[in-house]
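Complex 272.
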Amino acid sequence: MKRILGIALVPALLLAACATAPYTQRSQLMLISPGEENQLGAQAFQQVLSKEKVLHDPVLQAVVDRIGWRIANAANRPDFQWQFVVIDNPKMANAFALPGGKVAVYTGMFPVARTEGGLAAVMAHEVAHVLARHGGERLSQGLLAQMGAVAVQVGMAGRDPGVVQGVMVAYGLGANVGVLLPYGRLQESEADRIGLILMAQAGYDPREAVQLWQRMAQQDRQAPPEFLSTHPSAGTRIQDLQRLMPNALTYYRPAPDQVAESTRLLPGVSVR
Ligand SMILES: [Zn+2]
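Predicted structure with zinc ion bound:
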């Protein structure tokens, strides 16, 4: 019965299956509603947190909260339930964000991010993936290819655990803890572009993003940091960021007491 209902709904679903990315106005295939996506994002986040070791360090947490809330305010999504956590894994130089405003930073990211502005660049990039609904887009493409629109319709209705898993994979979280999957090149450059504006709007100097990618590239010579290995080459990226910089700087109007924060070292990070 459900299936018959699903098939009847397909033409309507496909007609309504488009979305537009914020800031870039790129049109996207979207078979999942923002509400469904946020709900699934929250479920997926709970799953991750039950498997990972959440760090309750008041000093680090305060920094991540402060940066996170500034970005959240710039993102202007009061419909999101923002939450920022630090995951204790010094070997993971990475971070991720899930629909509905769930953001996690691994402790291994702090030495590479180095400054508050560097961490803001990382977090703004991840939040940008969420704002542009890159996971929902990837999920839509994947589900359409694998099962067709009918399965999407039926699966969403049933809150299928397989669909929650699909959201996790679509947002770059692999089946195993500590594995992050890369987005496509188009989505990466879009997240860079949106993230740069977002961090500037949040009061962080967007030029810190270039410094961050330069540090990533430098580290790359010894052992590639996770964030780099799940993201496309640093060289092209730095060039693109520099091209986008004049526009991003028009959004950068920090309060006088905020100016020093962009270059302030993160807790526990020392200058070599
Ligand atoms: Zn990314």
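The chain has a mean pLDDT of 82.
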